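A reminder from the course coordinator: this example appears on the midterm review sheet, so study it carefully.

Given structure:
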């Protein structure tokens, strides 16, 4: 590696100490995730020092998120592969990642606790991209980053400001207009944050599908009563938690008691593929285009569960 090439590489890559500082994951753990589980693959300098890209840092944060939800680190690799396989390529402007540039501007507004600037940035982003893209590719990655760091000095207020702002925006979107299709979306207590559920409603819905959100925290027995009164075309349960055997058994019994089809959305879809094989319960996934498209298929009866 020439000196010029090394300088160029070091300008866009980060040493392990910087990654540890940015993510809160100590260097011993980062090395273990690499050597033992193959979860990250940093490049090496001629002297053997590890260098991490921005994509590597994003992967580290995704690993943290899975572990926080109760997933064993030994199972994270397959989940990362699946999520990356369905992830759309980033929008590139010039030589930069457009989503990353947006997130940097959002982050600056949060650091300054400037709610007005946050609102302006959100409106500007929505003028160029769909609300689903803005939530999924700009806002939620930043929200998850701050969620993992909210116990660090200076980050709690930033996370709370962003969380409150995004909940307001998601509710406004979900409550606007009437749509021909009615879908009930909820989550059991402890299975997700409220914002994650609301954003799932944004990603599931659209001009052709109206989503009514309940919860999180609505018991299954109450959900059955809601279904009896609203007569939805489908019910969707959202979860980002690893399911227990008891929960799966309860879910299968609940599906048999409904007059409408039942589907799951969220990260749980990547965790119970084998357990739901052959059942009538559909798995819609956890990313925007996939969620909306599979819900359309599910409602029309064309989705193979």
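Designed residues:
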């Amino acid at each position: 590696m020439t000196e010029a090439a090394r300088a160029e590489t070091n300008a866009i890559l980060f040493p392990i100490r910087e990654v540890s500082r940015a993510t809160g994951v100590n260097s011993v753990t980062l090395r273990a995730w690499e050597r033992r589980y193959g979860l990250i693959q940093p490049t090496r300098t001629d002297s053997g020092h590890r260098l991490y890209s921005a994509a590597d840092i994003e992967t580290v944060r995704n690993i943290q998120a899975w572990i926080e939800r109760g997933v064993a680190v030994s199972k994270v690799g397959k989940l990362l592969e699946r999520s990356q396989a369905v992830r759309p390529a980033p929008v590139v402007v010039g030589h930069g990642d457009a989503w990353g540039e947006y997130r940097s501007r959002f982050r600056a507004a949060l650091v300054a606790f400037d709610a007005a600037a946050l609102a302006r940035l959100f409106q500007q982003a929505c003028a160029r991209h769909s609300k689903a893209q803005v939530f999924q590719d700009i806002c939620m990655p930043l929200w998850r980053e701050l969620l993992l760091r909210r116990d660090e000095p200076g980050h709690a207020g930033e996370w709370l400001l962003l969380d409150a702002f995004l909940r307001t925006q998601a509710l406004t979107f979900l409550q606007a207009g009437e749509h021909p299709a009615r879908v009930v979306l909820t989550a059991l207590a402890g299975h997700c944050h409220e914002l994650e559920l609301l954003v799932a409603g944004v990603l599931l819905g659209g001009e052709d599908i109206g989503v009514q959100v309940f919860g999180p925290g609505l018991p299954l027995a109450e959900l059955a009563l809601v279904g009896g009164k609203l007569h939805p075309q489908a019910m969707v349960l959202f979860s980002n938690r690893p399911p227990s055997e008891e929960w799966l058994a309860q879910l299968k019994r609940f599906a048999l008691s409904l007059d409408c089809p039942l589907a799951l959305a969220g990260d749980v879809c990547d965790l119970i593929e084998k357990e739901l094989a052959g059942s009538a319960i559909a798995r819609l996934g956890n990313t925007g285009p996939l969620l909306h498209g599979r819900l359309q298929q599910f409602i029309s009866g064309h989705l193979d569960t």
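The CA atoms of residues 91 and 98 lie 6 Å apart. The longest strand covers residues 182-186.
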